[in-house]
What we know:
Blueprint: H1 4-11, H2 15-18, H3 20-27, H4 36-47, H5 54-63, E1 66-70, E2 77-81, H6 85-96, E3 100-104, E4 122-124, H7 126-133, H8 139-147, E5 148-151, E6 153-157, E7 163-167, E8 176-179, H9 181-194, E9 198-200, E10 203-205, E11 219-226, E12 232-239, E13 243-245, H10 252-259, E14 265-279, E15 289-292, E16 295-298, E17 303-308, E18 313-318, E19 324-331, H11 346-359, H12 370-379, E20 383-390, E21 394-395, E22 399-401, H13 404-407, H14 416-435, E23 436-437, E24 440-441, H15 448-481, H16 487-502, H17 510-516, H18 524-542, H19 548-552, H20 554-557, H21 560-578
Parallel strand pairs: 1-12, 2-3, 2-13, 3-9, 6-17, 13-22
Antiparallel strand pairs: 4-8, 5-8, 6-7, 10-11, 11-12, 14-19, 14-20, 15-16, 17-18, 18-19, 21-22, 23-24
Helix pairs in contact: 1-5, 3-4, 6-9, 6-14, 7-14, 11-12, 14-15, 15-18, 16-18, 17-18, 18-21
Amino acid sequence: LKPFRLKQLLALKSGFVCDYGVAAMAEKQNDLMHTPAERAVAAAKAAAGGATDPLVEEAALFASAQELTLGSGEGQHIVILGAGLVGALAGVVLARKGFKVHIFERYSDIRSIPSSGRSINLSVTSRGLRAIRSLGGGIYEEVLEKLCTRVRGRIIHMPSGDALFQRYGKDDSECNYSVSRFDLNKYLINLAQTNGAEFYFNHQLSETSDFSSSDVVGCTVHFTRSADGGGTEKVRYNMLCPVIACDGAGSRVRYAMKTQNLTTFTEDIIPRGYKEVLFPNPGANDFGAKGGVGGEPCDGRYGLHIWPRGDHMLMALANMDGSFTGTFYADNKGPENSFEAFSDTEEGRGKCKEFCEKHYTDAIPHVGGLDSLVRQITTNPTGILGTVRTSTWAVKGKLLLIGDSCHAMVPFFGQGCNCGFEDTLWLSKLIDKFCCRDGTVASDLCTADNFAAAFAELEQERRPNADAICDMALENFVEMRDKTGDVRFQAMKKVENKLENLYPDKIRSRYAMVCYGGEGNVSYANARDLGVIQAEILELLTLKFKDEAALAKAPDEVDLEEALRLIEEKLLPRQRQLGMDLSTVKH
C-alpha cells in the first residue's frame, strides 16, 4: 500500500491542510467543488463544532482500499477525468488519434436520465466549433443540423415594450448557435464511445488523490464508486499514463493540486445567481423584433432575447423544437428583488408576482402566464455564477487541467464551452506535434518528457487567453444588463456594424473577434486588447450626437473620413504589432 496522502496530511502542522477542519467546512458552503447536499452536511458539522480534519479521515480510508493499475500493457493509454462537454470531446480527439482513452465521470451516465436542472442553454460559435470541424467525417455538419438553432443577434426587449434587434456579426452569414448542453453532451459521449473510449461512470474523485510524486508521468487517483452489490466502495488507481482533468468548475483535481502545493487558484463567486425558466413554443405568436425606427427586423427564433432591467434580467434562447430555454438572473440575497425574497412561500410568491408584473409584463404571455413564471422563479434550483483562475495547469507529463477545471467563467459572453473546446483543439495540435506522426499516435514519441512539453506549451498558450475571456465575460454582464437598453450604446453598435462592413480587414467588433476569431492570431487576449482601442474610436465618432433623436441618425451621418483616419492612426498600428489578420474572422 502507498498511504502517502495519509502520511502527508498527518505530518503537516500548519497552513491550508491543518486548518481544513472547521474553516474548510464553513468554506464548503460557498465553494464550487461541493454539491448543495455536501455543503449542507458540512454546514451541519461546522455548527455542531466538529473539528476533525475530513481529509485525514478520508485518506485513512483510501490507505486500505483496493488498489488497481491502469495505463500499462499494449498501446498508449491516457486518462480523462470528467465526461462533460470538454472531457467527452477530448476523448473523441484522442481516441481518433489511436490512444486508448479511459474517461472517469463522477455522476451516472446522462444518456440514461431525462434532461433537467438549471444549466443554461449553450451558445456555440465558430471559435469553439473549429474543434468539432477538425474531426472531419461530417460530424460538424451533423451537429449543426441535428442539435443547433441559429442565433443572429440580440433581441432587446425594452421596458416600453419595443423589441430591438442588435446583430452579432457584420451580416447574416455570421451567427451563433443555440444548443442544449444535455443533448450535445450525450452526442459527444456517444461519439467518444463509438471511437473506442471506455467510460467509468459513478466514480467520485477524492481530494486525497496524489499528483505530487517525483515521476514525470504517473499518479494515484482515489475514487468512491458504485459497488456491484449496492452501496459504494473506495478504490485507488495507480495511473501509469498521463491524466487530463476536465472535471469542471468545482474540479476536485484542482483542489488536490492546491493541497499538495502544485497550484493556487481563486474562485470569485458573484452575488447573483440564475434560475432556468422555460418558454413553450410560441407558435405564430412570434416575439421577435419588428424593425422600424432605423432598426432591422428579426424573427424571434433567431435571436438571443434579453430583457435588461438593471439589477436583474431575463434571457431566452431557442431550442430545436421551437420552445425557448430562458434564464432569470437576480441577486441571491436581499429583502427585495432577490431569490431570497422570492421564496416558495405565500409571501415570497406574492413578492415575485408583483415584481414580474412590474418588470416583465411583455414576457409573461410567452412563459405560459404569470403563474408559470412565478412558479419557476420560486421553485427552480438556483445556479452559482463565478470565475475560476488557476496559476498552474500542468504538472510535468502526468497531469493537465483544461476547460472549466482551470478557467470557469460567468456565462455572459457565451464562451465557456467555446473556450474549453478551443483548449481541446490546442491539445490536439500539441499532441500531434510531440506524440504523433501524421496525426496518429506513435509509441516511441509518447515519452514522459514529450507529454510534459506538450502540456507546458498548452498552458503557456492558453492561460493568458483564458484570463482575457474571463475578464470580458464579466464585462459583458454589465453590457447586457445595463448598456443594451441604452440608446447611445445602441447607436455605437450600429456605427460599429457599418464600419466593419465597409472596412472588414481593418476593423471587426470585439464581439466578432471573440466569437468568430481563433485563427490569424485573433486570440481572446488580442481581441480584448484591440477592443479597448475600438471602443475609444466609437465614442469619439458618436460624441457629436447629443440626444436620442440625433443618435438615431448616427449610423447614416457618421463621418466616414474621420472614422478611417482614426482607424488608421489608432487601430492598425496595434493590429500590426499584435500580428493579427482580421480577414480570418469569419463564421
